[in-house]
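Recall that a protein's primary structure is simply its ordered list of amino acids. Everything else, from secondary elements to tertiary packing, is in principle encoded there. The following example makes that idea concrete.
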Amino acid sequence: MVRRRLGFWQRFAVVLIKPVMTVWTRRTWLGMEHLRRDGPVIIVPNHISHADPLVSAHFVYDAGRWPQFLGKASVFKVPVIGWILHRCRQIPVERGSVDAVKSLDALVKALDEGGAVIIYPEGTTSREPDLWPMKGKTGAARLALATGVPVVPLAMWGPEQIFDPRRARINPRPRIPVTVVAGPPIDLSRWAGARPSRQVLEEMTEVIMLRLRDMLAEIRGGTPPPLWQRATRARTDPEAAA
């Protein structure tokens, strides 16, 4: 078990966070067998709440892996906090900078060391009114293409009851029902060895997001919207976008 190899600060984080999440949530964990216990893996969750990292970290840890998230590089420069984040094997990422290539190198290094790296393909919480997945960014696809590492989808529903981004309200009541489902690795083999062109990365990203959308539909029920629908309305119909 990976947890036997944890350092002091990683164990400290577990002792601090896991009891809170155990009381705060009533969990339905499914598909943990798709998160292999050893070896590199890229985990791609849908993003519906600022509580998502806590929930996904809890799931990944219970599955026997140590979750490694991307964080703004500026946070890693904060005294004490940055030091602890480094000790907990989190990954600093430069955004909107010429140093962004260094961020990819840091991610590749984490995977070379056998890490379980969590990337939110949407880049931010969903802006869809009903929190369905929206069109993703290409970072996860770029990393998968560069490394050939398996990409495991993680569909979540329930963290929005802990903190709903539409209302910016936190819900402190215990035993909030949360469902997390890991699926089989996404088949991206058709792009193996391809040049990371914009078209290739967008095609890969769409496959990732469609898988997440369909998995979430199985959890929630109902019919999800197309990933591109909201953006199209915003460009063509100002009233619909308002």
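The chain is about 40% helix and 15% strand. The longest helix spans residues 198-220.
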